[in-house]
Every structure is written in C-alpha cells, then in structure tokens.
C-alpha cells in the first residue's frame, strides 16, 4: 500500500502531501521508513557525547536563547581540562564519538582552543574517538586546520532552505547571510568532513511547502548526516512574540517525526540524529524517532554545573540521575523497540564511507 502512497520518485507535491498526512497514511509512512532504515543502517544506534563548550556567541539569531543580545544569562566557556575530562569519560563509557558544540566565535584564541582539544582527544583515545564539530560558520582556513588536526564531521544547520524565511529569522547583516551559510556547507564538503546539516521544524512563518523544499535541499546537497528538531520558543528572544502562531505540541512532534521519516526514505544510508530537543515535546520522542528512521543519539555529557546557562530553547529536559543511569535507561528504552547501542564504535556515516575512498572505520 505504501509503495503506491509514496509513488516513487517522490515529487515535491507528494512530499507536501506526506508531511500533511495523519492516521493510517502516517502510520504507513512510518512503517516504510522503518523498513528502509533497518535495511540500510540496521538496528544499531550510535552515541555521540555532546559537549557544550561555550554559550558565548557573536551572533544574534532571533530564535536562540544564547544570542549575543540576551543579557539574562551568565556566559561561560569550559576550561580545556574540563573538556578533556569529559572526552575521557565518554571514551571510557564506550561512546564512540563526541560532538563539540558552541556559540559561534571567530577569534584566534577560540580556534586555537578547539584545535588543541581535537588533537588531545585523538591522542588520549589512540585515535579511536570520532569527533563532530558544531561551531558555526568559520573561515576556510579554520575548517581545514580543524580537519587536519583530526575532526571527522561537521554539523552546520542551514536552519531553513527558504531564503525568505531565513531573512525573517536573522538580523540583516553579513554575519547572518543565507548565501554565506550555504557556501559554508560547500566549503565543509570540499575540506573533506562528513557533512551534516538540518533545519528547525515548526517555525513561525514556515509552511509545509518550505519543509518539503528543505528535504529536497538536503538530498540535493548529498549530505552524510542530518540533525533536525522542532523549534521551541524562548522567552528572551525576538521570535517569542510569534508564539501564538506555532503549531500545538502534538502537531509539531508529528511534523518533526515525518521530517525524519521522509529524510530516511530520501537518503537511506545517511546518519540521522534523534535530537535532544525532541524530548521537550514528548518524553518518549527519542524512541519514536529512532524507530522510524534516526540512528544517532547525542546524550549531553557537559558538566552539569554549566548546563543551565546553555539554553538555546526553554524547558530542556535534564537527566534525573547520573550519566551512567541515563545510559542504562536509554539502553532499556531502545530494547523496547529492538534496537541496541553500538558501544565503542565511531558510527561513521555509511553514505560517506561509500562515497569516499578514504579508509575509515564504520
Ligand atoms: N552556534 C552554532 C551551533 C550551536 S546552535 C550554530 O548556530 O550553528 C545549534 C542549533 O541549535 C542551531 O543550529 C539551531 O538550529 C538550534 N536552535 C537554536 N535555537 C533553537 C530553538 N529556540 N529551538 C530549537 N532549536 C534551536
Ligand atoms: Fe549563536 Fe548558534 Fe544560537 Fe545563532 S543558533 S545565536 S549562531 S548559538
């Protein structure tokens, strides 16, 4: 039944229909993406220990709680030693990879610090830990430097592929320019990273047509990884005043899951993250996302003390227990959907390893 529903190849109109689907049609869509996922990337879930390096940011994105103009937060940057401790912790616990995420900064001292962290992380793990960076737009020279020091992947969300919507979500200046962001993705690919991008789902002014275009954008960019999640309003941001326009929680969740499901169908062998932000909408959202297409989870391993200041969005769910208990709970939850954690594996994108002759472990 779903084959006819899908009507390959998926046209833009069909994507729009499927993004609006509900009930039996939505269920059929999810069944299809589940099968696509199991066939292409199996039932293993890869861990990335997420380290939120700093909430200092040069930019002022209208949706983000750590934007430069928000004076209501205490700014922090983890010490080099704290980051290395977190990397050691991740490695010992069997996380095959880490993600270093940060507010965007372009100073030399910032790029030096990241560079040192990359080199030391590889050194103390006998080159075994996979490193994803999510540190925003940087110069070609910086991208290359970090790559040559050992970073494996880079995640830079386009946020929305609609230039018109992008302009509504950002100040009008060279720091927040759609074409520059688009070009940064090309630079990252040229450098050699496993390339990741993604969008926010359920933004004010966003239409289903725009989301369909986002899917087409990601497919045509030939990405290796995708990290998407619902937009969650933050009181101390300019976009908050449009909160009444937002779809209700259940609709936003369903839309986010349909975006994941369709991404899996369109890009069968890439890595897709079940992003932390999904849990704001539903405690079981991680399992739901994994079941229908995602294969990567990013547990937060930032020292607890700093986390309250890294709120890109509000109502973030925090672990009730220790990191160890959180992992054990995750394992149990994944068992309920017949999935298991790929401990001690980098979990590189199959799409990348197939496309490149460089010999890297899966
Ligand atoms: N500064 C870097 C990386 C950190 S921000 C960058 O912007 O690329 C990581 C992601 O958080 C952003 O790409 C954005 O998609 C997401 N984000 C920011 N504010 C958000 C919000 N209010 N709701 C949901 N996601 C948000
Ligand atoms: Fe800074 Fe990233 Fe937030 Fe934009 S989304 S304000 S670049 S941290």
What can be said about this structure in brief?
With 362 residues, the chain is an alpha/beta fold. The chain has helices spanning 2-6, 12-19, 23-41, 80-92, 108-124, 140-149, 163-169, 178-191, 208-221, 249-266, 285-292, 304-307, 323-335, 350-355; strands at 44-54, 97-102, 130-134, 153-155, 194-197, 200-201, 225-230, 271-274, 296-297, 340-341.
Strand content: 5-15%
Number of strands: 10
Structure annotation, total helices = 14
* Averaged pLDDT: 93
Biggest sheet record: 8 strands, parallel, barrel
Q: What hetero molecules are in the model?
A: S-adenosyl-L-homocysteine, iron/sulfur cluster
Distance between the termini: 34 Å
Low-confidence stretches: none
Helix amount, in percent?
A: 40-55%
SSE string, helix = H, strand = E? HHHEHEHEHEHHEEHEHEHEHHEH
Q: Structural class, from helix and strand content? A: alpha/beta
Shape: globular
Largest sheet: spatial strand order: 1-2-3-4-5-7-8-9
- CA-atom Rg in angstroms: 19 Å
């Amino acid at each position: 039944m779903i084959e006819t529903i899908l009507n390959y190849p998926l046209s833009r109109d069909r994507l729009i229909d499927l993004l609006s689907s509900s009930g039996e049609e939505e269920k059929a869509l999810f069944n299809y993406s589940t099968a696509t996922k199991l066939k292409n990337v199996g039932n293993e879930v890869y861990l990335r220990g997420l380290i939120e390096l700093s909430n200092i940011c040069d930019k002022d994105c209208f949706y983000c709680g750590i934007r430069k103009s928000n004076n209501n937060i205490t700014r922090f940057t983890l010490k080099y030693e704290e980051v290395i401790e977190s990397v050691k912790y991740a490695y010992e616990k069997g996380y095959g990879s880490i993600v270093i995420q940060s507010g965007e900064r372009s100073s030399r001292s910032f790029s030096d610090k990241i560079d040192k962290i990359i080199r030391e992380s590889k050194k103390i793990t006998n080159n075994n830990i996979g490193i994803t960076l999510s540190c925003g737009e940087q110069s070609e020279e910086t991208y290359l430097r970090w790559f040559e020091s050992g970073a494996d992947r880079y995640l830079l969300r386009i946020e929305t592929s609609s230039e018109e919507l992008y302009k509504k979500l950002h100040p009008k200046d060279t720091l927040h320019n759609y074409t520059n962001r688009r070009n940064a993705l090309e630079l990252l690919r040229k450098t050699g990273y496993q390339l990741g991008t993604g969008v926010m789902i359920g933004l004010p002014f966003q239409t289903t047509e725009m989301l369909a275009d986002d899917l087409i954008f990601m497919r045509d960019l030939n990405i290796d990884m995708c990290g998407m999640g619902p937009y969650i309003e933050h009181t101390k941001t300019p976009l908050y005043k449009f909160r009444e326009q937002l779809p209700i929680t259940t609709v936003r969740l369903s839309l986010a899951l349909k975006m994941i499901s369709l991404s899996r169908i369109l890009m069968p062998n890439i890595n897709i993250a079940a992003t932390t932000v999904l849990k704001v909408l539903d405690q079981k959202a991680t399992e739901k996302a994994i079941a229908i297409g995602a294969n990567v989870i990013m547990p937060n391993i930032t020292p607890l003390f700093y986390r309250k200041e890294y709120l890109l969005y509000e109502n973030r769910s925090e672990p009730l227990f220790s990191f160890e208990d959180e992992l054990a709970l995750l394992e149990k939850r994944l068992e309920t959907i017949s999935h298991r954690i790929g401990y001690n594996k980098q979990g590189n994108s199959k799409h990348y390893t197939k496309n490149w002759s460089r010999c890297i472990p899966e």
